[in-house]
Amino acid sequence: xxxxxxxxFFVFVxxxxxxxxxxxxxxxxxxxxxxxxxxxxxxxxxxSSNSVLVALLDSHYTELAELVEKALLLQPLxxxxxxxxxxxxxxxxxxxxxxxDPEFKRFLHEPGNLKSLxxxxxxxxxxxxxxxxxxxxxxxxxxxxxxxxxWVHAGGAKKVDLGTVTHPNAVVRPxxxxxxxxxxLVPKSVQDDFNQWRSGVVLAVKPEGAPEVDLRKxxxxxxxxxxxxxxxxxxxxxxxxxxxxxxAPAPAPGPSSGHHWFDGESQVKDFIQTLVLYGxxxxxxxxxxxxxxxxxxxxxxxxxxxxxxxxxxxxxAMGRLTTEQLSEPGAPExxxxxxxxxxxxxxxxxxxAVRRFGKVKYDTLHIPHKMVSQEADGTVLFGEGEQAAHxxxxxxxxxxxxxVQGIDKVLIPPEKGTSQHVKxxxxxxxxxxxxxxxxxxxxxxxxxxxxxxxQKSLLSSCQ
Length: 463
Known about the structure:
Layout: H1 3-41, E1 47-48, H2 52-55, H3 62-70, H4 74-83, E2 86-91, H5 93-99, H6 102-109, H7 114-122, E3 125-126, E4 138-141, E5 147-152, E6 158-160, E7 163-173, E8 176-181, H8 188-197, H9 237-240, H10 264-278, H11 282-291, H12 294-303, E9 308-313, H13 315-319, H14 323-327, H15 331-338, E10 340-341, H16 347-357, E11 359-363, E12 370-376, E13 379-382, E14 389-398, E15 402-407, H17 420-434, H18 441-452
Parallel strand pairs: 1-11, 2-8, 9-15
Antiparallel strand pairs: 2-3, 4-5, 5-6, 6-7, 7-8, 9-10, 11-12, 12-13, 13-14, 14-15
């Protein structure tokens, strides 16, 4: 065998060994990369602030929300909401605190009676949407699989089991409805458990059917229609808003319902004055009044019954804005709209929501961008990444329709056409490029050896 053939065979063996080692290294890295992607996808998605479960955290129903959490039903309810609408019958805090039998309350809070507490709470939830306008003499199955009787009293009152609906359609959300009721609904199975717990003592009040009414002898009085404001406007706030941000000093008129239930102009003036007198928020007040038409737009929206929460950056945060961020047409309006949430939230409701659900997404007036909030350092963090802002001064102004919360940074809406998914993919590709194996010592030696004979082009890895 001549020297040329031996040399070619040697080069071939070295190439095969080099490529084999390189492939083994890449294969060894792939499972780790796949595991990282699985962990990223397994993160719990943020629950929408518009969910009916978040509405349970409202001040009228916090006692019921505490029981739901104690009964370990929060996760099962999230799964039910994810697949269908639900209807919740919620006794208010006053009844649960004062009117609930102390012995029955003690029975529900004992750890050994967790199943009874779960059945009781599931009896208050129907896995379908039942609004007040659809009420009738029907029967629906609750989550605990017991039947709930719906009927209308002779006087027009809506009834469910032995309870009376005191606040129909108290909360209406895309994934469910909450009706306020005047008592706790007790299924027969829970009553039996309670009787056994009390060593066979029968309950004083025994459930009975609906009373029979003779329509020929009973006279009904028809109440006059009330002109009081509705619980919430029929249309969404985006329908009532002006067509878009405008640089004109006068507001661009948006669609109006014609009903001005509240004095929105006075409320907005009061909140602007409070913002100025509070100190440290003059720049935000100046943008609302002078640089944009948002103050007038807010007055119109509040007058028609809409509620707004303003995340107000302090003067120090506003001073860090660059000329480029404010020079584009409509930039101040976009920033202001991104800091407004079309619902009423306080510091307590913000923190309670993120403490229980981890991450919560809030709609903003800057469509289609949403605001992500989460718990951080014992307070609420808005946004993500380095531009995230902490809740700095809480409840600067709260009147039931307008809420102002101070934050320590200006939140910039993401650029159009970009998303975290795309950024994450680019970052992943960059990490993959950085993780490519460098040339080993054996390969470097072979490449140098081939280069001395002018044969470096035989190996693609040497290029």
